[in-house]
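Handover notes (outgoing to incoming on-call)

Open items:
1. Cysteine dioxygenase: sequence verified, structure written out, both below. Nothing else pending on this one.
2. Nothing else urgent.
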Amino acid sequence: MALSKIDSEIEQVDQEKYLRQATSYYQALEKPLKYGPAVDSLPDLIAALHREFESNYVNIEMVNHLLLSYKSNPREWRKYAKFDRYSYTRNLVDAGNGKFNLLILCWGEGHGSSVHDHADSHCFMKMLKGDLREKRYEYPNRSGRDTGRGHHPDGEIDSRELVEIGETPIAVNDVAYINDNLGLHRVENPSHSDTSVSLHLYCPPFDQCSVFQDSQKKTTAKVTFWSKYGVRTKLNEQ
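Cysteine dioxygenase structure tokens:
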């Protein structure tokens, strides 16, 4: 194996470790940084994100600023917005050289996610069209956040443990942020007549997460893409 490849792999491990540690203290910006760079288009946003992730010590606040600064332009993201009549879809826009994933999620009328975590990664969610509603819950039995409720080693969770701690509407160009230290969430399109589209950034990327079903049982779910770079994926490529 070439030394350059080894160095690159070591750098990526260091960056992932740093990013996961940052979830223990990062909360989120409410508005763009006063002296941060401007973002004029979706290509500008993607290029700026790649520059930020060149460093092992990613400035998460700057990532947040970039997403806040971008203003939705349907002409730029429409080609990635692929809908399904039965469920919301996850459409890959940019794989971030393995350091982040940028996705567009498309929500049909009344579509919603399960209650889920983010595998100790950062999750940013920016509204591009329509509205979404986020319901947030305590993360049951999470290390360092023991609420004193019972633990079930087989994955069962007492229904009293899945405690809702907030509900927030997300309007066009708003940016929401969550990580596992802040809790779990469920996202839904509250409209039964209009669709919604949102832009999500996950760092580090992950291919599975924990889902908390209505039965209160915690299960592991594989993360898939309905399309990649504007092209519908085949089942074996998701």
